[in-house]
Amino acid sequence: MFPFTTKLLPVSSSLTTRPATRADLPVLLEFEQGIVAWERPFNPTLKPDPISYYDIGELIDLDTAEVVVALDGERIIGSGYVKIRQASDYVQPSEYAFLGFMFVDPGYRGQGVNRLVMDALLDWAKKRGLSEVRLQVYSENASAIRAYEKKGFSPLLLEMRRTI
């Protein structure tokens, strides 16, 4: 059972973010399954459950990445990560920040939690001298696209597929 709610909850005025720790892994692994469940309708190529997108523990341990959690009091209500990636040889800048693992407890959606997480991730990237941020989102995921556009993101490349 997921550790989140489906009813809209009032957000306290003391929402905070902090770096995730390995002690947060049980909740973060549930968040990951929430992401998989949400994205499954957008991608018919996903294997049957259980699947995992991330090695969250490794991301927590890396010096070149940061996993952030959003908190309402002590309760973890959102997550995201930023990781330094090397760009292709033919583009600039040579390194960029890549965002992923964006999840907000359904009871807290639409209340600025994702913005708070993204602000913390972008601050981490800026402090490391990175000048570009990228992420991936399914083209049919309109709510996520709107959230990213509000933070200044715009489409760069559309990957297409077909079966043969």
Topology:
Elements lengths: L14 E5 L5 H15 L16 H6 L3 E8 L2 E12 L8 E10 L8 H15 L5 E2 L7 H9 L14
Parallel strand pairs: 4-5
Antiparallel strand pairs: 1-2, 2-3, 3-4
CATH class group? Alpha Beta
Strand-and-helix sequence, N→C?
EHHEEEHEH
**What structural class should be given to the helix and strand makeup?**
alpha+beta
Whole-number tally of structural domains: 1
Spatial extent as radius of gyration: 16 Å
The fraction of residues in strands falls at: 15-25%
Identify the CATH homologous superfamily.
Answer: Gcn5-related N-acetyltransferase (GNAT)
Share of helix among residues? 25-40%
Mean pLDDT: 92
CATH level-two architecture: 3-Layer(aba) Sandwich
Quick one: overall form? globular
Total strands: the figure is: 5
Domain N-acetyltransferase: 15-164
GO molecular function, one term: acyltransferase activity, transferring groups other than amino-acyl groups
GO cellular component, one term: ribosome
Protein name: Ribosomal protein S18 acetylase RimI
Q: What does this molecule look like?
A:
Helix content is 27%, strand content 23%. With 164 residues, it is an alpha+beta fold. It has one domain (15-150): Gcn5-related N-acetyltransferase (GNAT) (Aminopeptidase, 3-Layer(aba) Sandwich), CATH 3.40.630. Strands 1-2-3-4-5 form a five-stranded mixed sheet. Strand 3 (75-86) and strand 4 (95-104) form a beta hairpin. The chain is globular. The model has no long low-confidence stretch (mean pLDDT 92).
